[in-house]
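Hi there, hope your week has been kind to you so far. Thanks so much in advance, here it is.
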Amino acid sequence: MNRLFPSLLGAMLLCAVGTCARAQDRFPSRPITLVSPFQPGGTTDVVSRVVAPVVSESMRTPVLVENRPGATGAIGAAYVAKAKPDGHTLLMVSTPVLATNQWVYKNLPYNPLTDFSAVINVGTAPNLLAVHPGVPAHDLAELIALAKARPLSFASAGNGSPQHLCGELLKLSAGVDLMHVPYKGAAPAQQDVVAGQVPVICNALSNTLVPVRAGRLRAIALAARTRHPQAPDIPTAREAGLPGFEFEVWFGFVAPSATPAAIVERLNMEFRRALRSPAIAAQLQGLGLTLVADSPQEFAALIAAESAKWRAIVERAGVKAE
């Protein structure tokens, strides 16, 4: 009996490995769902819907986008974290979901660093610091001087949102004190800046550029290392003498942890091919994104590095967890 047990155990392991291999060979065996953890119309939602038809055609299976918004992406993220790790349920993520939520919110229903397997970083988009045209500041130096001379406030989509953390980063980088005015969404926050109710906002370039071009907002500086092709006339904060003020939001796809490596690599290949097609690349650039389309390993390293970076910033800024 003692001699028989190792043989049986070995047979069981071989069977398990064979079953796993066959499961990977059959992938995909049913429709793939891309969960967007934010409201329809946002960048994560739009990117998912732009990419889905191309991936669906190449993989010969339906790729469906499903919105599960709420709690700065936490509801959708928790749903995917608990999904079967077989590659058929993916999460479209942005910086808050995997790099900042854990440092801002208490009792997060998922672990950003252990509950997911990185698939691919789609691209990055910088934030643009802008003010109402009535603010007597035309560049970053003037705005910093104004903030040191009198109280100023900035609007955001809520505590822990990219707009909020961008504003906190400006405070730390420039050594100024700005009052945070949270809203329930980026759209109403920017609307009030356009209306002159709040003087400052640091919002996504794609959302801010239209009112800037229309003269309803004044661009101050791009929170990025280099100028953007869509706004070559807007200087970066680095050019204005504030190199520490850089805030670029990244967007990507992840799968539940324990998803087989072979499936992750297959998904990466399919998404990378779609993202690098001229038609899709042009649409993403139209959204203000700079294409990345990297490997799972590179995206995983970015997520870990960004999480550590934002933990330090949140702690220095004293952002309170909720």
